[in-house]
Write a structure and sequence with these properties.
The chain is built from 4 helices and 12 strands; from the N terminus they run H-E-H-E-E-H-E-E-E-E-E-E-E-E-E-H. It is an alpha+beta fold.
Amino acid sequence: MIIRHMLACGIAMSLLQIPVHAAEENTEFTPPMTPWGEPDIQGTWPINHLIGVPLVRDPAYGERLFMTDEEFEAEQSSVAARDDRFQSGAIPAADAAGRALRQTSLIVEPADGQYPGLTEYGTQLQANMRSSYRPGQTVFDRIEDFSAWDRCITRGMPVSMLPRNYNNGIKIFQSPGYVAILLEMAHEARIIPTDGRPALDPAISQWLGESRGHWEGNTLVVETTNFNGRVGKTSAGVPGSPGPLQPSTPNMKITERFTRTGPDSMDFKMLIEDPEVLDPGSYKVEYPMFLDNDYEMYEYACHEGNTAVRYYIETSRFERAQAAQQ
């Protein structure tokens, strides 16, 4: 499925020069302002540099969010060797590791960097989730056997704001009363009103939820609710990908914070709350973003009704028929 998405969508692998330690960024930075008086966070902020940072932390790091100097030196060497193999053609572009970061996981809370456990209800939901990314799933017989991403509808939230191993472009636009976030993966645009309008009625649900934004000083705060609960999500496309299928409910709430920390840097925080399925009921992701307006966003030419879904079904039926004959 990864290969199908790469071929269908194209690959943009702009490699960034990343500061050694994201925590050293100046949190008191005074950002440029838009003509209407809001902090200006516009531009292209690809997250290729996160490809080498796992969503879930290696238990060997314990509660350490950042590597030691020695660990980071080894990580830099590993990334350099991997990029050399990419340049030589020994590995595909989608497997290039980008640039090394000291950060040991994208999850920063719980403190051990682990994905929360699931409630009994969450376990039931997970057991019924179907996807081409589900380990061990071999029966594909109807459209319900595929996730929304298999069907080229959406990756859903929060995964749409996490890295994959390709198509990691994120472009932010602003106008009076709105912020728009264009995602290279799955050709999606998040339209976020910032004019103080109330949230929609909870009965109106959407694949990516309904977002409302406001400014707290220099930080854009985006609160998203009204999810339809129908997106079968996988973890970020980094080491260990695709990882566990993550269930969610229509009552999930996601709070994001975008804070410009320098001329070319921004801090991103995302709190995911869904106590019906998560135990404990929430987790938090954090990572640095870096401005790269030379990054080219490619068309994600994948659409619902793509032939890959039909081929999965045809192949699965053929293999099962062959097994029955034997």
